[in-house]
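Hey team,

Filing this mostly as a record. A colleague (T.K.) asked me to run one chain through the structure pipeline before their review meeting, and I want the input and output archived in the tracker in case anyone asks later how it was produced. No errors, nothing strange. Just documentation.

Input sequence:
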Amino acid sequence: MERRTLLRAAVLGGSSAVFGGTLWRGAAYAAPAQPGAGPYGALGSADANGIRLPSGFTSRVIARSGQTVTGTSYTWHNAPDGGACYTDGTGWIYVSNSEINPSGGASAVKFSSTGAITGAYRILSGTRQNCAGGKTPWNTWLSCEEVSLGYVYETDPWGVNASVRRDAMGRFKHEAAAADPVRKVVYLTEDESNGCLYRFVPTTWGNLSSGTLQVMVAGTATSGSFTWANVPDPDGSPTTTRTQVSGSKKFNGGEGCHYADDTVWFTTKGDNRVWQLNLTNNTYELAYDDSLVTSGTAPLTGVDNVTGAASGDLFVAEDGGNMEICVITPDDVIAPFLRIDGQSGSEITGPAFSPDGTRLYFSSQRGTSGSSSGGITYEVKGPFRA
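Output structure:
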């Protein structure tokens, strides 16, 4: 048994931690990730865009807030936030939320098979502070309002069909959404210091117009078993959704959320944690906690948006910290993947891979200016492992 597994059992006071196992296997109570040598090696010096990357990777600027996207007449939105990619014939689309209030909404950039930008356009308008969001298996974008009594809007990445407000998914300070096609539910995070984790069970999978909103119920420990309970009033008024169900599990500032292989990972910024839900046995645990790093400096702080690669690696973006995207590997190692220099007043948002897995898109929400009007959206291309 690894030393850090024993340490975790001692720190968390849970004898169940001694079962060990790796982060991705869904085994009961694997150890939180620890710093180590990442799969891509050390970061190099900053490139022309101010980004430090491992050897073999390159970056380019895709769009800047307030400026027209290259090759188009479309002006990119302020404060770019959550994002996702969609296959479009032989090319693809990258969708990006806008975290400003009032206004907000979302935009998209279209790429050819070679990665050339072929279009940019608006897909959602008239909403407020659209934050992380999430992609559905039927290729729509769930744009979430990070405001009190905020809504989820289902939007069309192609900008053809009108967006639809999905009231049944609840009114609260929405952050991220992650669809689970096996259980036919959508998981939802809440950006409150005493927020909850929810799941929405549609009446019909693929149609979010009606269904049941549920909240995770568990103890106060950092690992254990959990259940789901119906939220009596998803409208959240006059009683907030997070206070309606006794025993609902509280999380300190829910942020990004990602589903893959019967597992949900989500982040909480208030305590710099990455949580893991093992859906095959209904247990939860910590995948990362900066306070449980056993040697050296914690590489990941300001924990925020998260996405996954085909390799099983998680890529977690920082809101602050060292302005890094860190990778957490399936064998519980965490290491910086990239760093943006000279933008300490910003945060990294919207990490998402192109459909072929060779390009990673993300934004610096406030860029070098520290203002929402200074956002920059990037692409990193290179030998991501499969």
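Quick notes for T.K.: The two ends are 28 Å apart (CA to CA). The domain at 3-381 is CATH 2.120.10.30 (Neuraminidase).
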